[in-house]
Structure formats: structure tokens, C-alpha cells
Amino acid sequence: MGGHGGRSMSDADILISIRGLKVHRGGVIVLDGIDLDVRKGDFVGVVGPNGSGKSTLLLTIIGQLQPTEGTVSVFGETPGSMATRGRLAWVSQAASNIPNNLRITVRELVGLGTLTWRNMIRPNRTERNKRIDDAIRMVGLEDLEHRDIRHMSGGQRQRAVVARGLASNAEILILDEPLVGVDRESRKDFLRFLENLCRNEGKTLLMVTHDHTAISRCTHCAVCIDGNVHVDEEIEMSPNSLMLSNFSNGINLKESFSVDLLQQSKEVK
Amino acid sequence: MEPFSWYRDIDGLGDLLILVLSPMLEYLGQYMPGDVFPIYFEWEMFQRALIAALLISIVAGLFGTFLMLRNLALIGDGLAHVSFGGMAVGVAFGSVAPLWLALLFSVIAAILIYEFQNREILTGDTSIAIFLTGTLAFGLVILRLYGEGITTDIEAYLFGSLNMIDSDSLSMIGWLSIFSLTSIAILHRGLLAMTIDSVAARMQGIPVNLIGLWFSITVAAIVVSMVKLVGALLVSALLVTPAATAQIVSRSFRGCMLWTQVFGFSATFLGIYFAAELNTGTGSMIAVVAASQFAIIGLIKATVVGFINQKKLIETREALVQ
User: Fold this and answer.
1) What pLDDT does residue A84 have?
2) Could you tell me which residue, B77 or A210, shows the higher pLDDT?
3) Any CB–CB contact under 8 A between B124 and chain A?
């Protein structure tokens, strides 16, 4: 997105940089020639129908999948290398990822975020407790910190999982479909809360969602679909037309970041 | 009963445990109810059984909580039968140490079950079922072809008896408990983190593959050696039931671990008491007590929850009417 107006930032602010990325999964090209830069403080929403390669993109960024062609660098390093450990956090879908027969309080769950290979054996209690307190405060679950996670609503649960990521002191949070199982009303609050994380806490967020209305709070948006370049018009499409369009295996995010949605959404309001 | 003396030969950890714990057990024995039960606190043979059962309940409880979370509740039974396959191969070909073959089979099976689950090829229960039936059948076929059919020797490996524990067996249980308790004390946080979300755990820098490997090998070692000594029934029951009962009553993970120990300990204690008084098998009685605990606690919980829900329903109805 280099060179577009509005934000004048140096290259030092680029945290994630992707050039000409191609990824094959099971012999099929899922991502085909992607260029993408994510800067510090961005809230990037990646939308697109099922099977469009959103999750593949995330898994490549965290180093779970290897690129077939092209390069991905995170903090200037190879994804998944020791230097990036602890600087990215994975926020999974709370609705499907927490086992049913697990009894765990919010505080215990958030505490797991403070673990690294270094302090796994002997955690530093004071520092650990401070980080847990901070993370719980940031997501606004102070009153519920000793509550069993099963007895909470979908939105609260997802906040707890975000807090786990925050407790690791990661600079980039990667959210995989965080809105599944969260009802409409809490969805708004949750998105506002994510926006505040970027603005006030200086976190960088990368969120994958199939709900394209969710990106109204994002500073940038990438539409994964059909191998075409998607600019602001596409975002106005109804969910139905998004689903109906005949998408193939490839996607292309080139220039998709020329949309500054934050500006737009403010004008709408 | 021989008199206490410091000159006694100490031969392995089993003897040491008896030496250290027997004065305490003898003291407690004076206050124990029942006609037969107090001998578990007085006779060395029964002291060994009591200590072994309590050690197994502690270890099984700690690992059982994690097995339940990973949907591997039946792994105790599964690996017991896998080890039967290894044992059969060992016996049929006249191996000197069939137990080592059993352990090898079980460790391989445990690692494969873990990897299948991790790579989302098969769920835990499906792969346990495949390994259980496959290796059991393989063992039977091998025995028919090369051995003399099922011997009592092989049966003993599947249905050991708590009351037959000798000093060497107690040593083995002791060492295994020490190894598994220290390692789980070190690794339990990482294990919990990766059980909930392995992707997030890996990104934090937790050595997910290494912990997974350690977990599979340790579970296999615990199951195989303890099954051989006290029987598949007791190990399986202690691996699963107390943990399942604990998750009914607790609200936090820490609470769940503590309650598992409470239920495991009480089931073992009461099981041995009833077995002694009613003259039944010790392992099966412990399993029966553990299952009864689950049933009773579950029923109480269901009644209480049902009552609360009913109350809430009436309150909402009244609020709606007004």
C-alpha cells in the first residue's frame, strides 16, 4: 500500500511485510501473488467467503504454513523463528476452542498467556500477576475474573481469550473469526473494544472474519475473493453478492489496502 | 510382624517407603474401623498394597484431568490391551523381557494416538479403539501361531492384583510416581496451555511437540507398568472417574485438580475398606466406589441445578405476569 495518502509513516513501522506470496495446500493454489504491509497500530480486517484463503494467510504469517513462493517477514524475521516468539499472539475462536469439560476461571486462562519456554518452570509471580491484572483490566472483566468461563456469554468468553493474548505482551494480535458465537449487540461492543486496543494500547491487530460488516471499525480492510483487486466498492456489497460471486482458488490483496475505512466509517456516522 | 530395627536391609525404594511409612501406618491402624481393615496398616504385605494404591491414585488423578480434556479417557484400557499385544509377541518368541516389548508397543501407540489427534487425522476415541482391537487381535493371532495359546502368565499382565505387590513392584511404582510427579509439576502449565490452544501455545514459545511427546511416553509408561501390577480395571478407573467427578463440583482448574485428589484418595481408601470387610477384589471395589461417587455427586448436582432452574423459571414467569 506504499505511497497512499493519509498516513505518512516510515518503513520502520512496517511489522508484517508480504511480497509475492503464493501458498499451496494439498496441491491447490490457495494464495496467489499477495503483497501486503501491516504497520504498527493498524487494525486490519481480512474478509471473504469460506475457502477464500483467509485462514491460510494467517497460518502463513504465524509460520504454521510455509510459502511456496514469495517472502513473508514479521518484525523483519522469518515467521515462527525464535526472534518472533512471544511478539505475536494467536486469539482463537472462544466458541469452538475451549473444551466442554474444562473448568477454568478467567484469571487462570489469562495466566496461561504469560507462559514462555523460559518461565514455564519457575514463573515470576509478582510480574506475572501484574501482567494478568493489566490484561484483565484492558478487556474489562475485572468483576468476573474468578468466574468459570462456561458461565459467561460468548462475548465475555472471547474477551477472556483476547486477554490471554494481551498477557503475553505481544505487539501483534492475530484474531481468527473472533465474532463466532457473539450476539449482535455484544459484537458492536467487542469491535469498539478492539479498536481501542489499537488506539490506546498501541497494539496491531489482524482479524479474519466472514462477517464483512465487522470491518467498519478497522483502519484497513482486505477482501479475499476471486483473485481480483478489491477496493471500496466491494465492501459495500451485500453478504449475498459476496457469497454468490464465483470465487476460485486464488486471491489477490494487491492495493486492497488503498481503502482507509476508518475515515469512511467516520463520515458515515 | 518383625520388630522395627535400623539394621534391616533396605533393598530399593519399595523397602525404603515401607520403612519410612510403616510406623505412621501402624499408628493410624489403631484408629481404623472394621475387623479386617486394620491389617492393611499392620502387615507389611498389605501396607505395600495400601501405599501402592495411594501412589497410583495420586499419579492417575493428575494425569487423568489432562486425559479427560484431550478426550483420551479410555487410553488406560486402550494401552493396557496394546501392551497385551507386545507381551504376546514377547512370550511367543521367548523374549527375556516381555514387559519391555509391552512398553515399547504402548509408547509407540501412545505417540501415534497423540499425533493422529494433533494432525486431526482421527479423534482420540477412534484411534484408541483401532489400536486396542488391532494389537489385541494381533497378540491373539501371534500366540496361536507361535505360542501355546493364552497362558495364565499373560492373563496376569492384564489383571494384576493389588494384594500381590512385592517389594520390587512397589519400588517400580515409587520410581514411576517420582518421575511423573516431578515432570508434571514442571510441565503442567505448558501442558494445560497447549491442551486448550496449541497454536497460541506454540506462538508463545512453549515447546508443544516436546511436551506432547513427554506426555505420551509418560502416560504409556504409567499405564503399562501399573496395569501389570494392579490390573487394567483399577488404573483405568483411577485415571478417569475421580477427574470426571471433580469437574462436576469445581469451577476452576486448580479446584478441579484438588478435588480429583480428594475423590481419588477417598475412593481408594473406602474401596480397600469395603474390599477387606466384604472379602472382594481390591481393585474392582475401588473402581466401584469411584463410580458410585460419580453417580451420587452427579445426582446431587442435577437435583440442585434443576431446583435452581425451576426457581428461576417461576421468578421469570411472575415477573412477566406483573
Assistant:
1) 78
2) B77
3) no
Q: What pLDDT shows up at residue A267?
A: 45
Residue A32 lies in a domain: yes
Per-residue model confidence (pLDDT) at position A127: 84
Q: Let me know whether A203 and A74 are in one domain.
A: yes
How far, in Å, are A166, A195, A220, A223, B207 from residue A75 at the CA level?
18, 22, 19, 24, 21
* Nearest chain B residue to A105, by CA: B252
Residue A27 pLDDT greater than 80, yes or no: no
Assess A181–B contact: CB distance below 8 Å, yes or no.
no
Same domain, A231 and A163: no
Which is higher by pLDDT, B58 or A98? B58
Range(s) of the domain holding residue A178: 13-87+172-269
- The domain segmentation of chain B, as residue ranges, is 12-236
Chosen from A56, A75, A101 to mutate, greatest number of chain B CBs within 10 A: A101
Radius of gyration of chain A (CA): 18
Q: pTM score, two decimals?
A: 0.81
**Across the interface, do B247 and A90 touch by the CB < 8 Å criterion?**
no
- DSSP letter assigned to residue A77: B
Give the C-alpha distances (Å, rounded to integers) separating B317 from B72, B144, B303, B307, B320: 43, 69, 21, 15, 5
**Taking a C-beta distance cutoff of 8 angstroms, is the pair B119, B212 a contact?**
no
The Cα–Cα gap between B59 and A143 comes to: 35
Same domain (yes/no): A259, A182: yes
**8 Å CB contact of B253 and A102:** yes
- Tell which of B197, B214, B248, B297 to mutate to test the A interface (max A CBs under 10 Å): B197
Percent of chain B clearing pLDDT 70 (strictly above): 92
**pLDDT (tens digit per residue) in B279-305:** 888 888 888 999 999 999 999 999 998
Give the separation between CA B248 and CA B253, rounded to whole angstroms: 12
pLDDT at residue number B96: 65
B207 interaction partners in chain A (CB closer than 8 Å): 117
A168 to chain B, any CB pair closer than 8 A? The answer is: yes
CB distance from A97 to chain B under 8 Å? yes
Domain B12-236: what homologous superfamily?
ABC transporter involved in vitamin B12 uptake, BtuC (1.10.3470.10)
Indicate whether A160 and A232 sit together in one domain.
Answer: no
Overall domain count for chain A: 2
Chain A residue at shortest CA distance from B186? A121
- The predicted structure's pLDDT at residue A248: 28
Reported confidence tier of residue B153, pLDDT bands at 50, 70, 90: low
Distance from CA of B141 to the nearest CA of A (A): 38
Q: How far is Cα B272 from Cα B176, in angstroms, rounded to an integer?
A: 22
Judged by CB atoms closer than 8 Å, whether chains meet at B253 and A105 is answered as yes
C-beta atoms of B203 and A90 within 8 A: yes
Q: Is A62 on the interface with B (CB under 8 A)?
A: yes
Min Cα distance A269 → chain B (Å) is 36
Compute the Cα dihedral for A61, B113, B212, B89 and give only its sign: negative
Determine the average pLDDT of the residues in B218-231.
83
Residue of A nearest to B250 (CA): A103
With contact defined as beta carbons under 8 Å apart, do B238 and B292 qualify?
no
Q: Is residue A4 part of a domain?
A: no
What pLDDT is stored for residue A148 in this prediction? 86
CB contact under 8 A, B205 and A90: no
Check A108 against B253: CB less than 8 A apart. yes
